[in-house]
Amino acid sequence: MATAAAPSRSFLQVAATEEAVAPPLRVVQMEGLVILKIIKHCTEFSPALVTGQLLGLDVGSVLEVTNCFPFPIREEDEEIEADGANYQLEMMRCLREVNVDNNTVGWYQSTLLGSYQTVELIETFMNYQENIRRCVCIIYDPSKSNQGVLALKALKLSDSFMELYRNNEFNGEKLREKNLSWVDIFEEIPIKVSNSALVSAFMTELEADSPVTQSDYDRIQLSTNPFMERNMEFLIDCMDDLSMEQQKFQFYYRNLSRQQAQQQTWLQKRRAENMARKAAGEEPLPEEDPSNPIFKPLPEPSRLDSYLITNQVSNYCNQINRTSRMVMLIHHILAWLFRPQVSLPRY
Amino acid sequence: MALADQTVLQFFPLSTSLSAKVHPLVIFNICDCFVRRPDQAERVIGTLLGSLLPDGTVDIRNSYVVPHNESSDQVALDIDYHHNMLSSHQKVNPKEVIVGWFSTGFGVTGGSALIHEFYSREVANPVHLTVDTGFTNGEASIKAFVSINLSLGDQQLAAQFQEIPLDLRMVEAERIGFDILKTTAVDKLPTDMEGMEATMERLLALIDDTCKYVDDVVEGHVAPDNTIGRFISDTVSSIPKISPSAFDKLVNDSLQDQLLLLYLSSITRTQLSLAEKLNTAAQIL
Question: Which one of A193, A221, A245 makes the best mutation probe of the B interface by having the most chain B beta carbons within 10 Å?
Answer without folding.
Answer: A193
